[in-house]
């Protein structure tokens, strides 16, 4: 493109004539002119992306291009399009493929062994109020040898307002007592609200239990349940488990303690440091704190 500009200045002719003589399409010329110097600008972006990926290497290296774009905008001041970030990450071979793998799902449904609550959410997972809509579910995580693997169970309480894990429990057995512990912790720590909270689960035997229903009634909390064999009714929780298993279970844990430590560390990272695009590039806790400051 430098040649085109030199010929234009030398002979004092129009760009159209120069392009016609040297047989270069107008679109090619203007595209190259607009993207001139892109390589030097890319170098700065590549350095910034590499720094982001090194912040929590075990997890941030699994960031996708949209999350990286948010970090570049919010933390580095780049005014950049996500398509450009995608191109750069492809060129650097930094795109994570782990999210394409299917993960094992745990099913706690044992038929109608208690009371089935109505589906109050009906897939309406969005809310602009903290602690208004909570989702809870159980999933299994495996450790040990592949031929003789053992498992532990995780039950988190997730606030749909910002995706924050309000409480969780990890145990060898998914009993009713196991399920009640994080529910009790979350409900007892709820601030004074001008509206009632709804807790949504699947139809697992723990959530049909009388003790579970009584605890919700004690705290004046509505109960909601997905319909049987309809995973989309609890899609927010399914999405959380998928993300967690991708980012935690990319290695084989030999012992239970190793696995539980990795799970606990990841939940802390998820709450306090893992940025989310739908939270304007902020972590769940940071988003909630800023919202409270604005409301004060």
From TrEMBL:
Pfam family, any one: rve
Signal sequence interval, chain numbering: none
Record domain Integrase catalytic: where: 126-292
Xref: InterPro entries: HTH-like_dom (IPR025948), Integrase_cat-core (IPR001584), RNaseH-like_sf (IPR012337), RNaseH_sf (IPR036397), Transpos_IS3 (IPR048020), Transposase_IS3/IS150/IS904 (IPR050900)
Family matches, as Gene3D superfamilies: Ribonuclease H-like superfamily/Ribonuclease H
Entry superkingdom: Bacteria
NCBIfam families hit by this protein: transpos_IS3 (NF033516)
PANTHER family attached to this UniProt entry: TRANSPOSASE INSF FOR INSERTION SEQUENCE IS3B-RELATED, TRANSPOSASE INSO FOR INSERTION SEQUENCE ELEMENT IS911B-RELATED
Entry protein name: IS3 family transposase
UniProt source species: Lactiplantibacillus modestisalitolerans
